[in-house]
Each structure stands twice: as structure tokens, then as C-alpha cells.
Design goal:
By secondary structure, this protein is of the alpha/beta class. It is built from ten helices and 15 strands. The N and C termini lie far apart (74 Å). 38% of the residues are buried.
């Protein structure tokens, strides 16, 4: 009587693996091959790289199952092969860095704490760099408090998506000569993003690595305040060149700047700090542009910079027009007023720092 491969597979289903919840060797994918030649049957069983302690038992059981069911006189041989198990896929999105390979400088805009005007500085720095003739993009990585849509009057707009090599790629919005991307474009302004760390990290990577940035001189990343897992994920997964840290002159803000500096200089991070930006450095009444009132203290950023051997890249005053520009979606850096020129001067310093580093 001839034996079919299907019959032999059915017989092998009777062989259960005692250590695998009583699943049979066919169900477990251990039967690599079955060959018949007259009254001879050859079965090949596949084992993982590390030898199964029950291998001999399974080989004997497979041979016995066939002999028990096959015609008398059937010759059975059970061979074995060893295959290394495929490595487990790391959790998270499988995103490459193809979309950022055309970017010369990727710079994080960071702060040790919230409320220091980091996003205001980031948006205006991006616009100022564009005014200087650079190709610029900004990724709003502050997933819990995205502010780019409001500050650029692009609220309610939804970026398009296209297919490139069977991957969905997001097209950034363009305004004021800058390419913008924010999680705020995909959520309602009043919607709270209640995400745990891994979810926030994945969303953040999409806002950077799944975006068609094209050729850019600068991509600024408006980072969330603090020094948490999102920051670590950023510096490990994004080819970030360095960081600019924003603070106010207040002692409480400067204390958090120290934490930010130490995070970027930590052995597991090791990213250069381009320098500090002292925001809200002084208050200047619009009707008295030459007057300065140091309502949050004076010289704090310079002392911190001296302590850590880094530069103060710029001092941005408190001017009503900066606040109004942020609320109206018209960044102050678009103007030729003193506040706008302060951001242009900051942009020149950042560009100078970047030019001094190898691309």
C-alpha cells in the first residue's frame, strides 16, 4: 500500500511535545520535510539552535507513530536539522531614517522645565533661519502640548499622506518658508493626548521619520520639557546633531537647565550643546524701547553658561508683540522690529555653530 505525505503528517500529529502545552510537532512547525520512496519514509525534524532536552524522545515518538500506522515492513528514518530562531522584533515602529538623510543639521530645542517659551523660541528661530535663506523644517515633538498649529495659524489643516515604496509618508505643511509638522494637526485643539511613554515615543518618531522633509539645511525639533523617556528615545533614534537649551533668568528655571545640560552630556546620550537662549531676559515697554526691566533676574544664563563652558546664543526680551504674534499665528521673527531682529541674530549664531561642526 502506498503512503501519502498527508497520511504521514496525520500520523505525526499524534506526537505531542510535553513542554509546549501538549501541542503536536506538526502544529509547532517542527516537521521540516517528509519523503517517501517505496517502503522507505524519511522525516526531517527541525529544532532550534539550543538543543531541545526532549529531542530524543520526540525523534523516537515520531518514528514510532509512523511504524505503528504504516504497512508492515516500512523502513523509517528520522533526520534532524538545527535552525536559529528568528530574532524577536523590537517593540515599536519599524521606521528607517531615509526621510531625514537629506537634512544637513538636526537640532533639538530643549528646556529643563515648561513655561520658559521654548516653543516660541523654536518657531521664531525656524522662521529667522528661513529669512536668512536656509531651507528649514520644524517638527513639533511636544506631543503633550503641541503649539505649532496655533503659533503658525495652521490650526485645522491636515497634512496629506502619499505612498512611497509601499510606505505611507506624511507631507509637511509649508508656511513662512518653513516646513511644519506637529501631532496637533492630527488631534483636535481641545483633545487631551492621554498616552503612556511608548505611545508618545512612537508618535514622536512618526512626526520626524515618516515625514517627507526633502533637502533641508536645518530641521529643528521642538522637544517636550524635561528629561524623560521621550528625550532618550529621541537622541537614540533620531540622528540629532546637538541641542539648544532655552531658559529664563529665574533661579528655578536655571536649576532645571542644569538637569538638561547633564542629560545631554550623560554617557548614554552624549550630544553637544550648541548653547543657551535666555528668553524673557528683560521687559521692554513698547512705548519706551530703550528701557529694560529685569523682572526675572539678570545674568543668570551667563553664569550657568560660564559654569558649564557653553555659550549664550541670544537674549530675547519680553515684548508684547512676541506674545501677540504667537497668538495670532504670525511669528515675531517675520518683522524688522527689535524683537524680530533678536531672533535673526539668534539664527545667525545657531547657523555659525552648526557650520563649525562636521556635517
Amino acid at each position: 500500500m502506498d503512503m501519502t505525505d498527508n497520511e504521514i503528517m496525520d500520523w505525526l500529529r499524534q506526537v505531542e511535545h510535553p513542554a509546549k502545552g501538549d501541542k503536536n510537532i506538526v502544529e509547532l512547525g517542527m516537521v521540516e520535510n517528509v519523503e517517501t520512496d517505496g517502503n522507505a519514509v524519511t522525516v526531517t525534524l527541525c529544532f532550534a539552535k539550543h538543543r531541545d532536552p526532549l529531542a530524543e524522545y520526540l525523534i523516537g515518538s515520531a518514528k514510532a507513530a509512523i511504524i505503528r500506522n504504516a504497512p508492515q515492513g516500512t523502513v523509517v528514518e528520522v533526520r534532524t536539522v538545527v535552525k536559529e530562531a528568528a530574532p524577536k522584533k523590537k517593540p515599536g515602529l519599524d521606521l528607517g531614517t531615509e526621510q531625514v538623510e537629506g537634512i544637513r543639521h538636526i537640532i533639538g530645542i530643549a528646556s529643563g522645565k515648561g513655561g520658559v517659551g521654548k516653543s516660541t523660541v523654536a518657531v521664531n528661530l525656524a522662521v529667522a533661519l528661513a529669512r536668512l535663506g536656509y531651507k528649514v523644517g520644524l517638527a513639533d515633538a511636544d506631543v503633550y502640548g503641541p503649539s505649532v498649529p496655533k503659533m503658525t495659524a495652521t490650526e485645522g489643516l491636515v497634512p496629506d499622506a502619499v505612498l512611497e515604496d509601499e510606505k505611507e509618508i506624511i507631507m509637511p505643511l509649508e508656511k513662512y518658508g518653513v516646513k511644519w509638522m506637529s501631532i496637533g494637526y492630527f488631534a483636535k485643539p481641545e483633545q487631551a493626548l492621554i498616552w503612556r511613554g511608548p505611545m508618545a515615543c512612537n508618535a514622536l518618531k512618526q512626526m520626524i521619520l515618516q515625514v517627507h522633509w526633502g533637502e533641508l539645511d536645518f530641521l529643528l525639533i521642538d522637544m517636550p520639557p524635561g528629561t524623560g523617556d521621550i528625550h532618550i528615545s529621541l537622541v537614540h533614534d533620531i540622528p540629532m546633531e546637538g541641542a539648544v537649551i532655552v531658559s529664563t533668568p529665574q533661579d528655578v528655571a536655571l536649576a532645571d537647565v542644569e538637569k538638561g545640560v547633564n542629560m545631554f552630556r550623560n554617557e548614554s546620550v552624549k550630544k553637544p550643546i550648541f548653547g543657551l537662549v535666555e528668553n524673557m531676559a528683560w521687559f521692554t515697554p513698547e512705548e519706551h524701547p530703550d528701557e529694560k526691566y529685569y523682572i526675572f533676574g539678570k545674568g543668570g544664563a551667563q553664569k550657568m553658561a560660564d559654569k558649564y563652558g557653553i555659550d549664550v546664543l541670544g537674549q530675547i526680551p519680553i515684548v508684547q508683540s512676541i506674545r501677540e504674534g504667537g497668538d495670532n499665528g504670525e511669528p515675531a521673527a517675520l518683522s524688522s522690529r527689535p524683537d524680530g531682529l533678536a531672533f535673526v541674530a539668534l539664527a545667525e549664531k545657531v547657523a555659525e555653530k552648526a557650520a563649525g561642526r562636521p556635517v
